């Protein structure tokens, strides 16, 4: 079996794929293109390029607003001077009802170079409730990765992370050192998607793995030569101290931790090194300090797939259509290895990569799907469709399986320091139940062999502290979530940690995966727990699902195209117009209504209605980076009167835009490659017709 | 019936039989003249002077959190208490304090399993009324629910899901010992201590009676009223037996009630239920299944037992008997649906298991259909209680006044214990003691006055649907009009222009008066058409005496019928609407609607 390593960042990341491995937007990608070679890595600001707070146009911005209240500012200094905080414009759209302030502070590097410092960027959402009800102990979120980031996507995560607490508590999100908006942000452009010919010039698929490892090694060499980055400064102990210092700088004596994935390991380090002030902990996707992560991924993958297949067995339609899912999966892997599926994958908006999607690619792709419960639940239908001769789901999986690798440095350094240092080749033995998985030449991130190779290339010369591989315990109340289909931090690990913690409550979500702290049940439990950590929880909401929900989800995805009534105030004049639109799931963002077709969770096809004057970029819907092509006028005979038609043909799909010549209202249909042109006639034309002239 | 739904219902019913017995109608709206500031509040001085000794469990009380319950005169919140003694893990108990201008000793009502309030602040005008919730009752937490039961399809499944649920409890820190009766008694003392009370009068419903040793240990009790059924130390499920005794009582009363028709003896009723296994009725609707399951012996017997603690449900049984004999599947199906519970709540498993003794539970004394129900229950509770702790209260209950009804087996050991504990009032009714009886007795008892049991002598009327109707003047007042009309004297006046018959839990019969303004008759007609979703044109004319009424009749989705009569009287538009079941429509039109049309006045 051939190997493909392009998934390495995706599958290595312990955080949710969407958070840790989110694609950079086209705007940011363009900026990255221009500046990658000249990256200073210090105070690097991807958003808008603002160099200092003085340049920021935000009217609400007030640099002089104190971060500490008077009582905290006047309190007796116990640990020396507080680090100074500078404010900057938050890199996300702020909800008008939510007060969010972003700041950064400079902290010691804590590595071998005494002059090296880092800057930690954070956002503090202020509690919205009555003053009397607001509690002094905020919730601090520890993101995954390591090296993942949260700040830029804070509005995306607001509902699940911030909203449960925001009435009574401030919520603080921050990017850990080496990640996101914290600096330095060391990037490996050698493995970056946008800047190099890594994908585009590789002719021999078999050599991808070796070339990827070489590229990472080259990056390591380049990083070592730099005198502005201390590679010994990236580990969990340093991350933990950053959190303590951040709390100190903000004048916070007591706080609550919410950690996901790697954030749970960081939380353990905090509880080991500096537990004072931690009132309670919520942990999801638990990664105990003493487990063997690099050697466990294959068994975790197998266990997660088993959870998915158990869900299929419990669903009448799925069980009938897929009586032996393991045999079907084995047959599909074998078939793809024998005869890989050719798929054209977009790496930028104008460049493609001809991928021969083989069995290993499939397993890696499934591993990525398994991170999120409702995505995992679509895996049986991928197999069922294949049995029916329908390869579209596999093609779709292949097309979105390319991730940017440039921001892999923090991940590599922290993982190698905390995990790789204690992993031996013997620990990579895979006790698997299914022979074809054992025989498969899995990607290095799944089998661990190349992970050790990467760590060897990034060797920093420091002596690992055995304490990093030892279990940690504490008495503070701790709510632990695990997902039955978690392919990277299996639920056994959550149980392992829970058994050590005398005040822990363990909640297993049978229908979730690495996203076990999401959804109404988890968020309500989290809110109740943080409110009163000592009071026991009613966890019955977690017991309504005994397995992954398969049939119901598939049913939703198979709904035929239909239209329903809709209304919109296109030009903001307060008068709403009625029209007909596809009955797809809808979402409203930045003056645009987005209707997702959602044939499955990877389906990018959508109809976007953009209000007059709204600043919305529909090309962001396609999974590529780099500069986006221009719109081309391309009229067609069936375009309704009063509308102009433009096209944007990209490597990842085609965008068709209708612009109302009188009002300026825009309708954009996002078409994936291979979509029949009929979709424009079936969706775009009738919607535009029903809108009429937009008045 | 599927095993799964049976398990669900048995769990719910088994607990509910003990719990729901003292439920009562929802609380009345709070009177506006109460002063919440007069409530006792724990102060530092109080804490200093009344601080219990270190070994007093009251020191376990750890806090009170007030919630805004959006009522000016009511204080709401939760009290946190240890799950078990000395545990750092807490549970919270909801509380409500209905303030009173007076400074009398507070009356504390311990919430019953059903969560409804027995008493209202108006019942004790010079005293604050304090309601302490049970463990698991909102807004307290945690509630111990086992949705895992929904997965059970067989006995083996049931064992597996029970284990799964108990394991989940264990993983989330739940200690089953926290549900035992003595711990529940301790909750009361801890909560009252945390709220700053040091002397109270207690009203103790049903299962809370079992926790009185704990209450005695932890609460400075002044006087106690226990409510039926009085649970002493006799360890027995006894639910089906209680229901059987209640059925006998209903049949006895029916025999002496004019118009009441049992269609045979209790034995005949049981035999009719048994014969449903040979000739099941077709179910009309099944909330658990797309394919309605037959109405067989087990389903109907389960419903009879599950409904067996509510007086109105018991009163319906003669009618159920007739419906079975007449093969009226629609009515039997409707009755069975009223008993369906989707509750998977096991908060009271500690109490249930403390009452349950498989060795002494003897279903053979029961009649056949109820025997099968009891046997199922024994099997399930044997399974559950083998995995859940239980205890036998060792201390005698507190002295108090017991209010019992004679339809439950109060002549056993429980009755004797109740008698030894204090005075006993026996109300000759079925199901629960009536509210008036309880309040009157409690008020007198708390005032150390002679207990007046005059309100405890009213017998429940059986067969109310079959009563001869006699009319009495009724009045409906709006800000601009007063409507007078004759209404049946046994129907309940809502005060809002509706009179309800309330003969039994399925009774939807009511007479409604509707008055509205309209510019002219045509506008009035179209408005009533819109208001009642009538198809237009639907109204036919009917002259009653010298008035012309427009009438419309039809049926609702639930099978009940409506009969609307519209007229314009002295410049006012008035509609009289009779809603009832189709088989009763002709009789009630003659006896209720037409007299109202004939004599209604509007001023």
Please provide a written account of the structure:
The complex is a heterodimer of chains A (695) and B (603). With 695 residues, chain A is of the alpha+beta class. The relative contact order of chain A is 0.12. Chain A is globular and about 75 Å long. Helix content of chain A is 32%, strand content 17%. Among the domains of chain B are: 33-234 and 394-446, Rossmann fold (3-Layer(aba) Sandwich); 468-602, 3-Layer(aba) Sandwich (Protein Transport Mog1p, Chain A), CATH 3.40.1000. Chain B has 17 helices and 19 strands. In chain B, helix 1 packs parallel to helix 8 (297-306) and helix 1 crosses helix 13. Chain B has 603 residues and is of the alpha+beta class. In chain B, a hairpin with a 7-residue loop joins strand 2 (74-82) and strand 3 (90-98). The interface between A and B is medium-sized, with 21 and 28 residues.
Secondary-structure blueprint of this entry?
The complex is a heterodimer of chains A (695) and B (603).
Chain A: H1 8-12, H2 17-20, H3 26-35, H4 70-74, E1 85-88, E2 100-108, E3 117-125, E4 139-142, H5 154-162, E5 171-174, H6 208-225, H7 236-249, E6 255-260, H8 262-273, E7 278-284, H9 293-313, H10 316-321, H11 325-338, E8 341-346, E9 352-357, H12 359-369, H13 373-376, H14 379-387, H15 392-399, H16 409-418, H17 435-439, H18 444-447, H19 449-457, E10 478-483, H20 491-500, E11 504-509, H21 520-531, H22 551-557, E12 563-568, E13 577-582, E14 585-589, E15 592-596, E16 606-610, E17 632-633, E18 643-650, E19 653-660, E20 666-671, H23 678-691
Parallel strand pairs in A: 4-5, 4-6, 6-7, 7-10, 10-11
Antiparallel strand pairs in A: 1-2, 2-3, 3-5, 8-9, 12-13, 14-15, 15-16, 16-20, 17-18, 18-19, 19-20
Helix pairs in contact in A: 6-19, 7-8, 11-12, 11-14, 16-19
Chain B: H1 3-19, H2 44-49, E1 63-67, E2 74-82, E3 90-98, E4 107-110, E5 129-132, H3 155-171, H4 181-195, E6 200-204, H5 212-218, E7 221-227, H6 239-255, H7 266-274, H8 297-306, H9 311-315, H10 317-325, H11 329-339, H12 349-355, H13 368-386, E8 401-405, H14 413-421, E9 424-427, H15 435-446, E10 471-477, E11 482-488, E12 492-493, E13 498-500, E14 510-516, H16 521-531, E15 540-544, E16 547-555, E17 560-569, E18 572-581, H17 585-599, E19 601-602
Parallel strand pairs in B: 4-5, 4-6, 6-7, 7-8, 8-9
Antiparallel strand pairs in B: 1-2, 2-3, 3-5, 10-11, 11-19, 12-13, 13-14, 14-18, 15-16, 16-17, 17-18
Helix pairs in contact in B: 1-8, 1-13, 4-5, 6-13, 8-11, 8-13
């Amino acid at each position: 079996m051939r190997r493909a390593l392009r998934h390495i960042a995706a599958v290595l990341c312990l955080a949710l794929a969407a958070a840790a491995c989110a694609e950079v937007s086209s705007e940011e990608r363009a900026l990255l293109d221009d500046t990658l070679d000249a990256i200073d890595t210090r105070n690097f600001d991807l958003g808008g390029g603002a160099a200092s707070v003085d340049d920021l146009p935000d009217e609400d911005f007030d640099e002089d607003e104190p971060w500490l209240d008077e009582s905290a500012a006047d309190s007796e200094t116990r640990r020396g001077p507080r680090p100074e905080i500078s404010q900057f414009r938050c890199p996300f759209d702020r909800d008008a009802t939510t007060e969010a302030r972003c700041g950064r502070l400079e902290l010691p590097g804590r590595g071998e170079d005494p002059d090296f410092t880092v800057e930690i960027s954070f956002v503090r959402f202020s509690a919205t409730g009555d003053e009397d009800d607001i509690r002094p102990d905020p919730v601090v979120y520890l993101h995954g990765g390591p090296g993942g980031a949260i700040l830029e996507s804070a509005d995306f995560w607001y509902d699940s992370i911030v909203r449960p607490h925001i009435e009574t508590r401030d919520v603080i999100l921050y990017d850990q050192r080496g990640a996101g908006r914290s600096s330095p942000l060391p990037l490996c452009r050698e493995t970056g998607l946008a800047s190099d010919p890594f994908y585009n010039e590789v002719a021999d698929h078999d050599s991808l793995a070796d070339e990827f490892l070489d590229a990472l090694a080259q990056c390591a060499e380049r990083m070592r030569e730099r005198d502005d980055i201390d590679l010994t400064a990236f580990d969990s102990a340093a991350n933990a101290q950053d959190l303590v210092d951040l709390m100190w700088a903000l004048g916070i004596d007591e706080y609550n931790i919410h950690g996901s994935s790697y954030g749970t390991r960081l939380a353990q380090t905090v509880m080991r090194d500096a537990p004072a002030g931690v009132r309670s902990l919520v942990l999801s996707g638990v990664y105990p300090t003493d487990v063997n992560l690099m050697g466990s991924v294959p068994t975790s993958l197998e266990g997660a797939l088993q959870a998915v297949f158990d869900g299929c067995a419990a669903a009448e339609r799925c069980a009938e259509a897929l009586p032996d899912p393991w045999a079907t999966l084995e047959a599909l892997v074998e078939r793809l290895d024998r005869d890989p599926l050719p798929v054209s994958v977009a790496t930028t908006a104008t460049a493609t990569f001809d991928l021969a999607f083989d069995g290993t690619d499939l397993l890696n792709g499934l591993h990525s799907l398994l991170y999120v419960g409702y995505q995992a639940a679509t895996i049986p239908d991928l197999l069922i469709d294949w049995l029916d001769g329908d390869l579209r789901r596999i093609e779709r999986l292949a097309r979105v399986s390319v991730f940017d690798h440039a921001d892999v440095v923090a991940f590599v350094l922290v993982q190698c320091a905390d995990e790789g240092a204690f992993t031996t080749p013997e620990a990579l033995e895979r006790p698997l139940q299914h022979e074809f998985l054992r025989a498969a030449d899995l990607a290095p991130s799944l089998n661990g062999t190349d992970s050790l190779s990467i760590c060897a290339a990034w060797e920093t010369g420091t002596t690992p502290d055995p304490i990093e591989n030892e279990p940690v315990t504490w008495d503070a109340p701790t709510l632990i979530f695990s997902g039955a289909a978690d392919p990277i931090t299996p639920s056994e690990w959550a149980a392992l940690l829970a058994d050590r913690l005398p005040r822990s409550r363990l909640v297993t979500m049978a229908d979730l995966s690495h996203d076990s702290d999401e959804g109404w049940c988890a968020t309500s439990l989290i809110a109740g727990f943080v409110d009163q950590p000592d009071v026991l929880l009613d966890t019955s909401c977690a017991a309504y699902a005994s397995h992954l929900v398969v049939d119901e989800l598939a049913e939703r995805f198979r709904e035929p195209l239909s239209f329903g009534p809709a209304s919109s105030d296109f030009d903001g004049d307060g008068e709403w117009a009625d029209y007909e639109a596809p009955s797809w799931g809808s979402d409203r963002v930045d003056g645009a209504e987005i209707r997702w077709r959602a044939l499955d969770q990877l389906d990018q096809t959508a109809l976007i209605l953009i209000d007059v004057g709204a600043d919305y970029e529909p090309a962001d819907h396609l999974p590529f980076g780099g500069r986006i092509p221009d719109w081309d006028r391309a009229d067609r005979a069936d375009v309704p009167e009063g509308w102009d038609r433009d096209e944007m043909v990209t490597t990842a799909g085609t965008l068709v835009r209708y612009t109302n010549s009188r009002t300026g209202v825009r309708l954009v249909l996002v078409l994936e490659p291979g979509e029949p042109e009929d979709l424009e006639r079936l969706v775009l034309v009738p919607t535009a017709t029903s809108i009429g002239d937009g008045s | 019936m599927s095993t799964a739904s049976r398990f669900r219902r048995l769990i719910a019913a088994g607990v509910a039989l003990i719990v729901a017995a003292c439920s009562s109608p929802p609380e009345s709206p709070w009177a506006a003249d109460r002063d919440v500031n007069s409530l006792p509040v724990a102060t530092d001085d109080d804490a200093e002077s009344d601080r219990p000794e270190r070994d007093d469990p009251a020191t376990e009380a750890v806090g009170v959190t007030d919630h805004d319950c959006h009522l000016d005169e009511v204080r709401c919140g939760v009290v946190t208490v240890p799950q078990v003694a000395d545990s750092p893990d807490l549970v919270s108990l909801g509380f409500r304090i209905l303030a009173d201008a007076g400074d009398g000793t507070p009356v504390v009502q311990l919430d019953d399993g059903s969560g409804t309030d027995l008493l209202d602040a108006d019942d004790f005008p010079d005293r604050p009324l304090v309601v302490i919730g049970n463990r698991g009752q909102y807004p307290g937490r945690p509630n111990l629910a086992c949705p895992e039961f929904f997965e059970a399809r067989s006995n083996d499944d049931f064992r597996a899901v029970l284990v799964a649920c108990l394991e989940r409890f264990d993983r989330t820190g739940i200690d089953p010992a926290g549900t035992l009766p003595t711990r529940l008694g301790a909750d009361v003392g801890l909560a009252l201590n945390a709220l700053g009370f040091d002397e109270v009068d207690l009203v103790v419903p049903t299962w809370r009676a079992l926790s009185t040793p704990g209450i005695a240990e932890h609460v400075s009790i002044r006087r106690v009223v226990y409510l039926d059924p009085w649970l002493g130390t006799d360890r027995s499920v006894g639910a089906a037996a209680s229901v059987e005794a209640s059925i006998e009582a209903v049949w006895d009363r029916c025999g002496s009630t004019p118009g009441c028709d049992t269609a045979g003896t209790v034995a005949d009723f049981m035999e009719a239920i048994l014969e449903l296994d040979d000739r099941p009725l077709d179910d009309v609707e099944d909330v658990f299944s797309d394919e309605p399951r037959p109405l067989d012996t087990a389903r109907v017997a389960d419903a009879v037992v599950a409904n067996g603690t509510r007086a109105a449900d018991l009163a319906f049984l003669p009618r159920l008997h007739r419906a079975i004999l007449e093969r009226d599947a629609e009515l039997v199906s409707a009755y069975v649906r009223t008993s369906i519970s989707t509750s998977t709540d096991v908060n009271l498993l500690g109490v249930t298991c403390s009452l349950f003794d498989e060795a002494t539970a003897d279903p053979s004394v029961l009649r056949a259909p109820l025997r099968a129900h009891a046997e199922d229950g024994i099997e399930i509770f044997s399974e559950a209680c083998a995995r859940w702790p239980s205890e036998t209260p060792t201390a005698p209950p507190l002295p108090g006044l017991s209010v019992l009804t004679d339809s439950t087996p109060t002549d056993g050991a429980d009755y004797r214990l109740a008698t030894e504990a204090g005075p006993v009032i026996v109300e000759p009714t079925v199901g629960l003691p009536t509210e008036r009886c309880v309040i009157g007795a409690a008020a007198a008892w708390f005032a150390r006055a002679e207990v007046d049991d005059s309100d405890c002598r009213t017998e429940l009327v059986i067969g109310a649907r079959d009563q001869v109707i006699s009319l009495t003047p009724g009045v409906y007042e709006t800000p601009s009009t007063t409507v007078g009309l004759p209404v049946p004297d046994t129907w309940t006046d809502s005060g809002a222009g509706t009179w309800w018959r309330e003969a039994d839990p399925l009774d939807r019969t009511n007479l409604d008066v509707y008055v509205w303004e309209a510019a002219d008759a045509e506008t009035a007609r179209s408005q009533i058409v819109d208001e009642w979703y009538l198809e237009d044109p639907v109204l036919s004319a009917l002259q009653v005496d010298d008035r012309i009424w427009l009438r419309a009749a039809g049926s609702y989705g639930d099978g009940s019928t409506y009969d609307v009569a519209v007229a314009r009287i002295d410049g006012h538009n008035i509609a009289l609407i009779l809603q009832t079941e189709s088989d009763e429509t002709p009789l009630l039109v003659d006896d209720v609607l037409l007299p109202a049309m004939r004599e209604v006045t509007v001023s």
